[in-house]
Each structure stands twice: as C-alpha cells, then as structure tokens.
User: Fold this.
Amino acid sequence: MSDCIFCKIVAGDIPCNRIYEDDDVLAFHDIHPVAPVHFMIIPKAHVASLTECAAEHQAVLGKILLLAPNLAKEQGLDDGFRTVINTGKGGGQEVFHLHVHIIGGGGPRPL
Ligand code: 5GP
Ligand code: ZN
Assistant:
C-alpha cells in the first residue's frame, strides 16, 4: 500500500530503528515509546488489522507471537512484557498496518 507508513518502513523509504528482520516480518522500536522498552513486530506484507486477517495470515501471526518472547528477552525484558494489538478505530488503532506492540521495563502496567 503506497500510502501506508509501515509499508514505507518495510521498503526502506522511511528509516526505523530495526531490531529484527526476516522474509516475513520486521521488528523495530516505536517512535513514541510508552515504556523503557517499546517495539513492534509487523508482517512485511500489508494487512490493515486483525479484522482483515484470513487463513493465509495464520503462519505469519504465529511467527510474530513466537518471536515476541525471544526479541523481548534480547531487549532486556527478562521479567516479562505486555503484548498489545490495537484493532480498528474503536480499538485505538492509529496505523492501519497490523502490528503487535511489545512493551516492558516500566514497572506496573497502566491498565
Ligand atoms: P497503534 O495505535 O496503531 O496501535 O500504534 C501505532 C504506533 O506506531 C504508535 O505507537 C506510534 O508511536 C507508532 N508510529 C507511528 N509512526 C511511526 C514511525 O514512523 N516510526 C515508528 N518507529 N513508529 C511509528
Ligand atoms: Zn502497510
């Protein structure tokens, strides 16, 4: 999607602070972190949100969730982390390219 900010990050047109990349997924630090560690893992192929996911996305969704604890540990989150997926306007989603937030290191969670 040409007007999608995360597709532009995947394409290298917008820089990011990259943590991990393979053929299917990209992980990078959030530009406005809400905790000492705050990064996100996204599928490289554009899909707007969980609502638009179908059977073809099952593998990449599983890959992202299995990757999360490994990357969290690499980022120093030995004690655990929060995993947040905002879906749709009603779910507070602002960037409509599916992403899983990994958040931690900030003490008690705000919610
Ligand atoms: P959402 O509310 O859609 O779940 O979260 C979108 C997240 O993307 C926000 O936490 C915001 O800070 C982050 N974000 C928006 N634009 C950029 C960007 O250009 N680069 C990075 N690294 N993060 C971004
Ligand atoms: Zn996109």
